[in-house]
């Protein structure tokens, strides 16, 4: 009888631990849920630095490649917070900063309970921390930030597995800033492949209308030639890769065209994941996917072409001179 009771006890303990395992959120969903609150904190830091009036601007490689105090504080906050909760995840940030402990006030250890309630797509349910790579752009649209074009500014946290961008979080610190004092400031968008994207209203440009969004401050003849070849009805020139992808998913633009090697993996990882989660596509100008493994080169050297629909049409319009000038990796 004693043996029977012990057997029953061990079976029930196993059942309970199996149930706990089954009900505890997958690593990916926990990482996304943490990245969400970390991105919200980042947005608060970005606003505080602007309010202080002390932007602490440094030129990295020239007047179009700036770094501010907000870039430095936000990267420290994101990387330290996520490293603390997920020590085995590889985290790659844009800014080259000295290795030092982050101040306590920069750390964020909360998580979005709404995200944790969602089911992880089956193909990612058993991923381990060490299989994930996080790409961080602490302040996308830094030049615009310094010039007061605040709606162009985003904070980007992209998550990759097996070289593919599978989840992303985008915070817009100044969303609604032109709506007056009573408006709620800032918002956070997020998405996971196979689950969808949230935090915004998905819209499309009306059929037959081609609106191209492209760079505001990094233009050149190749970029102009590529944009014109799309035969757009309108062209929107704005800063920030994150901002341009938001233009696509909110129906303000039908294609993001950047025929230049200017942007990097941390610019595109989070936006690509959100775009792909709603059925869009981001490639280089040849139509090849970018890889986000920990050891890839950071530059997206063959440019960026992103669409919500009709990707093949835009690819077919890329001029030969552009393809020759931007060899695919």
TrEMBL record:
Its cofactor is Mg(2+). One of its GO terms (biological process) is phosphatidylinositol phosphate biosynthetic process. Its EC number is 3.1.3.57, 3.1.3.7. One of its GO terms (molecular function) is 3'(2'),5'-bisphosphate nucleotidase activity. Mg(2+) binds at residues 94, 137, 139-140, 267. It catalyses: 1D-myo-inositol 1,3,4-trisphosphate + H2O = 1D-myo-inositol 3,4-bisphosphate + phosphate; 3'-phosphoadenylyl sulfate + H2O = adenosine 5'-phosphosulfate + phosphate; adenosine 3',5'-bisphosphate + H2O = AMP + phosphate; adenosine 2',5'-bisphosphate + H2O = AMP + phosphate. Residues 1-18 form the signal peptide. It comes from the Eukaryota. Keywords: Acetylation, Hydrolase, Lithium, Magnesium, Metal-binding, Phosphoprotein, Signal. InterPro entries: CysQ/Inositol_MonoPase, Inositol_monoP_metal-BS, Inositol_monophosphatase-like, Inositol_monophosphatase_CS. Belongs to the inositol monophosphatase superfamily. This is 3'(2'),5'-bisphosphate nucleotidase 1. It comes from Sinocyclocheilus rhinocerous.
